[in-house]
């Protein structure tokens, strides 16, 4: 029989990473399969969204929904606008609002917190009460991409600006053992700040860009095109460098990646998790929401790889 001997309150921390967040689903599945069920959950950005769905008991629904996503579906959900951010996010938030059905955080099946950042002061904000949807919407408001959220007299944006993997929040929720999932460990084109570059197949910079996404029968605008040059469908393999001028969206995405990695490493150095799980997602862009299946599998694989260490740390038979 599986027994938890060493810790009384396990906290699960789900880091930010946009589309890479679907890996959280696989990680949670693998933990449950191993008999490890967290007592509290907190998250930043996509981690807040997945965490809220998990705390609401709807992980099956989420996994089924993301499995059906295509580029075309994603585009229809992300409403384009030019005020406050490129994307309003109203449609996708409404989808989750219908699922949460007006629930407050206090009504979820387990303690939950989302992390956002105050735009004016830069302070991190721990959202632990009030509307689930409002908390998640604030936590996922990537600057320049999604519009900020007005909440209690301040504008809130993505929690990744201040605390991408919020171990401190789980500690604040009285977790005496923290399992954290960091989605951004190897995403900078295989570069590890002085480490070796991961070998990837070369691409021809003179080749025309792929027309993978069309809108109304026309190519997706070049300035808002999805990331190009991915030489493999493997989410673990970073894309090869390209001589093409990056699209605006690609430039923003890569800049966000750099920021996330820097802040994550700084925060985790000072506030380490007891158990750190790092799926290999260097080949997945932040807008690759249609690639859920391999991301989920990589999240599961990352936990399974760590299971001996997790069992030893938790004192599980």
From TrEMBL:
Catalytic residues of the enzyme: 45, 158
UniProt keyword annotations, A-Z: Hydrolase, Lipid degradation, Lipid metabolism
Gene3D superfamilies referenced in this protein's UniProt entry, alphabetically: Cytosolic phospholipase A2 catalytic domain (3.40.1090.10)
Sequence motif GXSXG, residues: 43-47
Domain PNPLA per the UniProt entry, residue ranges: 12-171
Coiled coil stretches, renumbered: none
Short sequence motif DGA/G: positions: 158-160
Top-rank lineage group of the source organism: Bacteria
Protein name: Patatin-like phospholipase family protein
């Amino acid at each position: 029989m599986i027994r938890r001997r060493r810790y009384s309150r396990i906290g699960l921390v789900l880091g930010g990473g946009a589309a890479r967040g679907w890996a959280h689903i696989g990680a949670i599945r693998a933990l449950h399969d191993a008999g490890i069920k967290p007592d509290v959950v907190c998250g930043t950005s996509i981690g807040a969204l997945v965490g809220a769905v998990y705390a609401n008991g709807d992980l099956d629904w989420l996994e089924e929904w993301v499995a059906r996503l295509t580029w075309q579906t994603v585009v229809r959900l992300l409403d384009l606008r030019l005020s406050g951010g490129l994307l309003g996010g109203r449609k996708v938030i409404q989808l989750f609002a219908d699922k949460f059905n007006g629930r407050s955080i206090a009504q979820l099946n387990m303690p939950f917190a989302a992390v956002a950042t105050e735009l004016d002061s830069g302070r991190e904000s721990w959202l632990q009460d009030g509307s689930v949807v409002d908390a998640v919407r604030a936590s996922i408001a990537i600057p320049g991409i999604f519009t900020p959220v007005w909440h209690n007299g301040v504008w809130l944006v993505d929690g990744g600006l201040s605390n991408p993997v919020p171990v401190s929040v789980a500690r604040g929720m009285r977790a005496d053992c923290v399992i954290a999932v960091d989605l951004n460990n190897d995403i900078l084109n295989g570069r590890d700040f002085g480490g070796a570059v991961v070998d990837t197949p070369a691409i021809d910079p003179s080749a025309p860009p792929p027309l993978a996404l069309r809108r109304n029968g026309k190519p997706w605008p070049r300035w808002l095109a999805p990331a190009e040059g991915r030489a493999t469908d493997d989410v673990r393999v970073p894309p090869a460098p390209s001589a093409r001028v990056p699209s605006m969206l690609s430039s923003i995405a890569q800049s966000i990646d750099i920021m996330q990695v820097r802040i994550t490493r700084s925060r985790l150095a000072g506030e380490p998790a007891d158990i750190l799980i790092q799926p290999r997602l260097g080949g997945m862009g932040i807008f690759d929401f249609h690639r859920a299946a391999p991301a989920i599998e990589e999240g599961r694989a990352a936990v399974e790889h760590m299971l001996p260490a997790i069992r030893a740390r938790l004192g599980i038979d």
